[in-house]
Amino acid sequence: xSTNNNSDKSGALVVPEKTEKPSVELSIDLIRRYICENxxxxxxxxxxxxxxxxxxxxxxxxxxxxxxxxxxxxTMVVGKDTFTKRADRLAEFDGAKAGIIVxxxxxxxxxxxxxxxxxxxxxxxxxxxxRKDRSHSFRNECSMAEYDRKxxxxxxxxxxxxxxxxxxxxxREAFPSSFSGMYTAEEMQLEPMNLPEYTMVDPMKVPHExxxxxxxxxxxxxxxPVEEQTQADSDAPASGSVTPKQIGLINKxxxxxxxxxxxxxxxxxxxxxxxxxxxxxxxQQASDVIKxxxxxxxxxxxxxxx
Length: 306
What we know:
Blueprint: H1 28-35, H2 41-54, E1 63-66, E2 75-78, H3 80-89, E3 93-104, E4 107-112, E5 121-131, E6 138-143, H4 144-147, H5 152-156, H6 158-174, H7 176-179, H8 227-234, H9 244-258, H10 263-274, H11 283-294
Antiparallel strand pairs: 1-2, 3-4, 3-5, 5-6
Helix pairs in contact: 1-2, 8-11, 9-11
């Protein structure tokens, strides 16, 4: 696989690591197997879209998909450093101030930093973000009562935690296009010290659809036409069973074109529309299915499954 032009033979986008290791690929299958095994297809797809739209790399601690209980909904959060690093790269960013709000002797005190002095009561945090192209700053204040989760971090570092909440809120309001849909563990009911660490996997072992997951703040190159992906498959011999790569692309297209995510629904659709259930296809038959799916409109078409 070549890593010099951010694409592999299929034209699918990849992102090279900052080392000599092979390129890293992110897919729904990879998310389910290596990031959050409890996630549903829809949750994994939503996380994939967040990483794609905001150029987040979960293997660099930039994004997390958390779900400890299969019956509970998944939570998507990003690292606090993702906010500050990305803001530092923005040309319009003109610095920020952040601190805590305390009371002492019935007086309210605003202080930069996170130090609470003896005899003071911590009641909240504040932050102010400045843009070079705006005449007014973006300031937020948040209360301890609203965000204190009584977890280890909130018990041991309450000032640091509430200051972080105020800062990321101000950054999100100041730069909505750069931070939309991104929330930190401090804002959610999660313990930051318990966030998982994802281990890099060999991309050669990930056969499914590929998206770009560059470091935060780096622009994503335009994706290669998906038709090029089918061309790579058509170059292979027509004989033999469907390949994992073809299955991954078919699943991706069924989700994008028809809104079908669950395996039973996918098999039923393929059997009804094409006479195959996904397992008994040859390479050539899979290529034909892919071509027909590519010709279909996006979600909401006549073939949408419910």
